[in-house]
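Note to self: keep these together.
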Amino acid sequence: MPKAIVIGAGIGGIATAIRLRAKNYNVLVFEANDYPGGKLHSKQVNGYRFDLGPSLFTMPHFVDELFRLHNQKPEDYFNYVQKDTVCNYFWDDGTRFSAKSKKETFVKDASETFDEPKEKIADYLERSQIKYDLTASLFLEKSLHKLTTYLSKDTVKAILQLGKLDINASLDHSNKKAFESEKLVQLFNRYATYNGSSPYQTPGIMSMIPHLEMHYGTFFPKGGMHQITQSLFNLANDVGVEFKFGEAVEEINIANKKAEGIKSQNGFYESDIVVSNMDIYPTFKKLLSKQKQPKKVLQQERSSSALIFYWGISKSFKELDLHNIFFSADYQKEFKHIFEEKSLYHDPTVYINITSKEEPSDAPENHENWFVMINAPGNYGQDWETLIKESKKNILRKLNNILGIAIEQYIDSEFILDPVGIENNTSSYRGALYGAASNSKFSAFLRHPNFSSSINNLFFCGGSVHPGGGIPLCLLSAKIVSDLIPEA
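Structure:
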């Protein structure tokens, strides 16, 4: 049986291993950390459980598919519930909006809250769906770097309707054309952050993302986000994938323009296929340092990172749900600080995720586990100690003003993760959450392919390569890689 090595046990790496096992490969996964999951990890502190990384779960069918590949019932490993409320939104002037997952309800409620005609909102969501339907098979489900992708009927159809995709305008420009309400524009601008970009730079095609949330729904995995990778890790073990934790890969061995295996701290491992789930930047700089470097790809602007405060809160808040957003009064200035000044704005948009709303055991009774995040620039050597202190004050001031309470008196537990920690823990260059930013219409084409065009048997998956970051796209990257590799 031929061998395949996967470098990195993030969700993309585990999914790739599961798919290659289904193709009859002996699969060996190397992970530098002593746990699986990459950014999808968790931590217990003083009776509180926190998911450390991604907190939004959509398109669960991509996870279920991996169990069915091996004729397993997904529910034997993994369960989730659909959310009626997508997110609760808050503004400084007292405006509040609870976004419901049902499209008709969202349109009605948004029309009443933001004084926009229902027809305008419904039309926007319809155009969001058209953009997704036209481009999903091209940008998300296939390699952008294979000629066969461009010879398909779907590609021709997308090209013929290019004007509907808003590629030449920014997301902010597209949203301002659609709505009069500044708050509704801001709400839809927020979707740029789903791939770590700025709404003032990323193309308007990104307005397809609201369709994904409403059409496919948002979900909560029983046991928390960490359970996604934990269940896939359990499946991988059950189908015969082997894992080596605490064993960092030092080099991908190349001979005669062919990947022949890897070298770790414990020696050389031969392999017929090598797949790197490691961020593409350190993959080339460390593991492929002797090979020609893809300069354009590696020089791309990095996506945003995050500054996260994990707070155990000794109180419960009825007005908060699983997902909550407290908006900045000047969104444009906030993104200018992040992407141009590589700093943090004094009035940040604050995201709070509270899994104890769905999983009461994640916090003591009448307490809540708050994952409090603001978008941040990558690590460029800033004075993070000072930035963290200032940000905590600014976050508390904002929350106290909107919620009308002194939050600090209820914080009985705290730890912090900044871009430096994200970079150190996950090998994500500069702590970027999504690899490269999508701040240009060419960004999708500049992401590294899922294969090497110069080295045979070498492939790439995960959030830093095509089709992008976030759980669904990482899972799709694994599918694309698997489709490129022949059955054993």
